Amino acid sequence: MTRHHPDTLTLMEFSAGNLSEPHALCIRLHLDQCPHCRSRVDTLDSLGAVMMESQPQVGVSSDMFDAILSRIDSEPDMTETYISTQAKRMSPLQKLLGDDLNALPWKRQLGDVSVLDISERFPGQNEQVVLQKLAAGGKAPAHTHRGSETTIVLQGAFSDQKGVFNQWDFVVLNQEDEHKPVAVGCEDCITLSVLSAPVKLTGTFTRLLNPFIR
Amino acid sequence: MSTLDQKPARAEGRKDPWSQLLEKVGKNQDRQAYHALFEHFGPQIKYYAMANGMASHAEELVQEVFVSIWRRSCLYDWRKAAASTWIFTIARNQRIDMLRKMKRTSAEMPVETEDLWQIPGDNEDEPVTSLHRLMSERRVRESLSHLPEEQITVIAKVYMESKSHQMVADELNIPLGTVKSRVRLALNKLKVILQDQNV
C-alpha cells in the first residue's frame, strides 16, 4: 500500500503531458499501483478535455475525413492488430530494465550502496536518471540535494527522518532536505531517481558518490 | 466561457451523446457516428496542435488522432470515461509521440510513448471507480464555468500550450508561487485536491 503520493500539481503536469520522459516514467509506475492517484488523474484528464472543448476551434480541410477513411480501409485489420499489441504489452519497467532488477550490472559505490546510471536510455533528456540500491539493513551517508530529486521505490523500503518509503512510494527531495536513508525490511531497497543537479554530501565523505548520496 | 454551458450535459447515470457515438464506432464500426465525432472533435484537436506550436503539423495530428480513435474504439467503455476525456488523452499522447518522432528519439528508446503516458487500469471494474469517473467530467465542466478568468488562463496555458508552471509564470510575468496558488485554488474547486485528504 502506497503512502507517499505525487502532489496534485505534478499530476496535473502529467495529465497535460508536460513532464520529461524520466519524470513521466516515475509517475506512470506509481499510477500502476495507486488507484487513488489514478482517480485524481482521471479528473485532471477530464479537465484537459473540458479545456480543449472551451477553446476556439479551427476548421479542418474538407477532404481530410476522406483521407482518414481511406487510411482505415487500407489497413482493414488495424483494430485486431492494436488489441494484440496491447495484450503483449510489458510493463515499462520490464521493457527498460528486464525482469530482474537485482541482476543488473550494479556498480558498488561504498559499503551498502550500489548505483546504475541509466540516463542514456532516455536520449535527448538533460536529466540524470539513476537506479540506486541500498543493501538490506544498510545505511547511506547523510546528504542534501542541490536541485530536486524525484524518486520512486521499485523494491524493498527505506526510511529516513520523514518516514518509511515502501514499494511504489513517490518522493521529491530538494535543497532543504538533508537525509540519511536506511534500507528497512529483509530485501535490498532499489529506487529510481531523476536528478536535476548533483547531491551535496554533508557528512565526512568528500567525494560525490551516488544518488542516495549524489 | 459560454460554450461550456452549451455542451451536452451528462445526465446522472446516462451516456452523453459523444460517448454514445463513440460506442457505436466501437461496436458496429459505424462510420456516420465516426463522422459526427470528427466534425465535433476534429476542430478542437486542430486548435490544440496549433496552440502547441505545431501549426504545420496540425492536420497531421488530427488525422493520427482519428485513426487511433478508430483503432481502439472497440476498447472504449463509457462507464470508464466520457468520450471527450478519452479523446483528449489520445490527442495528448499523439502530440507527444509526434514531437518525439520529429526529434527522432523514439527509435533509440526502448519505451514507447504509450508506456509512459497511457493511464493504466483499463481493467478496473469496481463500481465506485466507474461512478467516480462518470461524475468527474460533469463536475469539472460545471465547476470550471465558475472559476475566475485568471485561474482559467493559467490552466489553459498548462493544458493547451504544454507550458510548465515556471514557463507560465515567466510569460505572464508573475511569480511562480502565484501561478501555483492559482492552479491550487482551481483544482480545489474542481475537487481534485480535496480528495487528497482521503488518503
From TrEMBL, chain A:
<dbReference type="InterPro" id="IPR012807">
    <property type="entry name" value="Anti-sigma_ChrR"/>
</dbReference>
<dbReference type="InterPro" id="IPR011051">
    <property type="entry name" value="RmlC_Cupin_sf"/>
</dbReference>
<dbReference type="Pfam" id="PF12973">
    <property type="entry name" value="Cupin_7"/>
</dbReference>
<dbReference type="InterPro" id="IPR014710">
    <property type="entry name" value="RmlC-like_jellyroll"/>
</dbReference>
<dbReference type="InterPro" id="IPR025979">
    <property type="entry name" value="ChrR-like_cupin_dom"/>
</dbReference>
<protein>
    <submittedName>
        <fullName>Anti-sigma factor</fullName>
    </submittedName>
</protein>
<feature type="domain" description="ChrR-like cupin">
    <location>
        <begin position="102"/>
        <end position="192"/>
    </location>
</feature>
<dbReference type="InterPro" id="IPR041916">
    <property type="entry name" value="Anti_sigma_zinc_sf"/>
</dbReference>
From TrEMBL, chain B:
<feature type="domain" description="RNA polymerase sigma-70 region 2">
    <location>
        <begin position="37"/>
        <end position="104"/>
    </location>
</feature>
<dbReference type="InterPro" id="IPR036388">
    <property type="entry name" value="WH-like_DNA-bd_sf"/>
</dbReference>
<dbReference type="InterPro" id="IPR000838">
    <property type="entry name" value="RNA_pol_sigma70_ECF_CS"/>
</dbReference>
<dbReference type="InterPro" id="IPR013325">
    <property type="entry name" value="RNA_pol_sigma_r2"/>
</dbReference>
<keyword id="KW-0238">DNA-binding</keyword>
<dbReference type="GO" id="GO:0006352">
    <property type="term" value="P:DNA-templated transcription initiation"/>
</dbReference>
<dbReference type="GO" id="GO:0000428">
    <property type="term" value="C:DNA-directed RNA polymerase complex"/>
</dbReference>
<dbReference type="GO" id="GO:0016987">
    <property type="term" value="F:sigma factor activity"/>
</dbReference>
<keyword id="KW-0240">DNA-directed RNA polymerase</keyword>
<dbReference type="InterPro" id="IPR007627">
    <property type="entry name" value="RNA_pol_sigma70_r2"/>
</dbReference>
<dbReference type="InterPro" id="IPR013324">
    <property type="entry name" value="RNA_pol_sigma_r3/r4-like"/>
</dbReference>
<comment type="similarity">
    <text>Belongs to the sigma-70 factor family. ECF subfamily.</text>
</comment>
<dbReference type="GO" id="GO:0003677">
    <property type="term" value="F:DNA binding"/>
</dbReference>
<keyword id="KW-0731">Sigma factor</keyword>
<protein>
    <recommendedName>
        <fullName>RNA polymerase sigma factor</fullName>
    </recommendedName>
</protein>
<dbReference type="Pfam" id="PF04545">
    <property type="entry name" value="Sigma70_r4"/>
</dbReference>
<keyword id="KW-0804">Transcription</keyword>
<dbReference type="InterPro" id="IPR014284">
    <property type="entry name" value="RNA_pol_sigma-70_dom"/>
</dbReference>
<feature type="domain" description="RNA polymerase sigma-70 region 4">
    <location>
        <begin position="144"/>
        <end position="191"/>
    </location>
</feature>
<dbReference type="Pfam" id="PF04542">
    <property type="entry name" value="Sigma70_r2"/>
</dbReference>
<keyword id="KW-0805">Transcription regulation</keyword>
<dbReference type="InterPro" id="IPR039425">
    <property type="entry name" value="RNA_pol_sigma-70-like"/>
</dbReference>
